[in-house]
User: What shape does this take?
Amino acid sequence: MKPISTFLSIPSLPPELEPLRELAYNTRWAWNHAAISLFRRLDSDLWETTGHNPVLMLGMIDQAALEAAANDAGFLSHMRGVHEHLQGYLNSASTWFSKFKNFPPNTVIAYFSAEFGVTECLSIFAGGLGMLAGDHLKSASDLGLPLVGVGLLYQQGYFSQYLNEAGWQQENYADNDFQNLPICLEKREDGSPQTIEMAFPGRTVVAQIWKAQVGRVPLYLLDTNIPVNQPDDRNITDQLYGGDLEMRIKQEIVLGIGGYRALKVLGITPSIYHMNEGHSAFLSLERTRNLMRDYNLTFSEAREAATAGLVFTTHTPVTAGQDYFSPELMDRYFTNFYRDLGLSRYDFLALGRQNASNEQEAFCMTILAIHMAAYSNGVSRLHGEVSRKMWQGLFPGVPVEEVPISHVTNGVHFRSWISREMDQLYERYLGMRWLEEPSSKSGWARVAQIPAEELWRTHEIRRERLVNFARRRLHHQLERRGASYLELEIADEVLQPGTLTIGFARRFATYKRASLILSDPERLARILNNSSRPVQIIFAGKAHPKDDPGKELIRQVVSMANQERFRRRIVFLEDYDMAVARYLVQGSDIWLNNPMRPLEASGTSGIKAAANGVINVSTLDGWWDEAYHPSVGWAIGRGEQYSDIELQTQVEAQALYDLLEREIVPAFYDRGTDGLPRRWIELMKTSIQELSPFFNTHRMVGEYTERFYVPSAVKLHEIMTDGTNRVKALASWKNRIRDNWSQIKILEVNNERLKEVKVRNAFPVTAKVYLGALSPDDVSVELYLGPVNSKGDIFNATAIAMKAIETYQNGVYLFQAEAVMCCRSGMHGFTVRILPQHPDLVTPFIPGLITWA
Assistant: This one.
């Protein structure tokens, strides 16, 4: 029976407790232990059963409990302290970002992502991408950046996982109750929901806008599940990464184009747009279309202004992992759009193609983002290298190391992931500096002053908590499956609080190789069941609903855990989420990660573990490739890459077993007369000291700000301050350069036929070039010098600018590089190249515009 009227029921708080409402609706409580303890104090059991959701908790709590709290002087004092701290945080004008005096006033940065992992009760994330996005917003808030987030509000979000009796993953999708989440519907002055519209084939799709407040940062979320839409369109924001390719393109239109329009209707005008992965790349086209309309610009002119304010971060190190849409699907949704841009179908599709002339090539969102953004980056040093190789084809003639894709290594938001006990320990010995300046090496150096006994006692408390949590969780899992009384009894005895505990928790994709440690069951059984030095493993993680090989990995883990010899030593915890992750990264002794190099773009779970004093054991991939040193953990192999995958798995599994037997287990169990594993504790301290200053999102967001956000804002402000004349001039210059580039030739290079030259002895090189209708001011002529490898290729090259020293007739010029020298001995070589040059270019590497001698 449908209701004839609906209304909203809200928590009824005594006047004395009204601050709780504001605290509940600002998710800063998610990284504030004092706020969490306040809600726990109100009703600890309800805090757990509501999934750590203070809004739902306040709506469910017994009114008598609220009245009791309103008359509890201790509770009221606690509440006032937390509320005053939040107010001080929100209103503080003294932030890290306030030091950027050259940042144009009123500039806003918009951060777009398909998922955000802010807190477990807001289920709009699937894994690492969402965790990274959530941590990005939290650090942006702490640092005081003028940033807003934009995403989708999924009715069901990502799935809940449970296993059947055979250990096969099953998916359950539960509706999010938006009215009982820490979000608010954006409304117009008349009280009606604020909405935006998007043109879809033969119809209009409408989305309403919700806001989640993440500290100082508002996160705007779009929702199409409203009656005005057709049933299929109401489902667009139903599931994260659900449906087919057509559903995916619809979601990405809503995210990119709809997200852009949402900010506009809310009166927010960002200058900088950060696309976190390619899902939101359509916003670059919507931004361009709006600039064309607002400033009466051509596509090429508006594109220059749009590009100046676009930042793109790629997270996927394999070509197949990108989003591709067929030309037919693009025609269905974008025919009118590309006409609005004044583009032909060919030119429009070329924006998302590597080979524009290939009519069958699909449209790639990552390629669109790279083509449109001023700055593109990977998420670790190794991933930056992989990305440059993967997308070198977009920049023909550009050496792979100069492809304009840099890297900003990921980090984590410490306060969100560090246990309450470690938080107190750090505060006691490091002061507040670890929170306010987590990138300060001198601050983290004080970790050495933490007494070994205190650090170890703190860690043992957390391991015991993890074991108790795992037992409860396993008991519940077995009970739901109808397990016998004997099986439930065993579940209550699995794992031991004093045993070396290995944590492995992440998405179950085949390249992450969850079963690597299970490769040799006989050897593993000897390691785990050593009577004097036992080891135990806790697994957790979800496979994508359509990834049967990933599900098979889960089945293998569960099957082995059910064997009698492993029953008390291996546990798989269902439904991995942020809450489960915290128990694991805080209570494990070892964090195991063994992806197939170089398929892990970054990986951040190991960073969360390291911040808690947990030691990493990993293949040299993602962040660990640049973090690893023998003093901070262990590496499986030395970064080798095999052509024979089976051989690589075999070799690395044996290397892992060797590490466990010869190094890890002895280091954990070798105790002094005081019962402390001194060698292990020293490893914990060194890991915290060395890794924490760099691998945190405060450093990461600071790096994005200094390298991308500020330069973009300044450049955009410069080129738009004179009524778009500079934008028009830049677009006109680019068109002229493209039209005339084919005429450019390097006619002659003269180096006096040098055969030998002494190290640091200078020598000149000249080049005679033909520029046709272009002038020396339009180009940069460079000497490209470096050592030569066994294949005859220049590597580790240095580009040296050459100056025009003489003008001949008919567009011929002589350029010279003076005082050229080699800084090391060995075979060297050089060549000469010509690139476009303009003061408003962010990068000189424009696709197709490079000429080599």
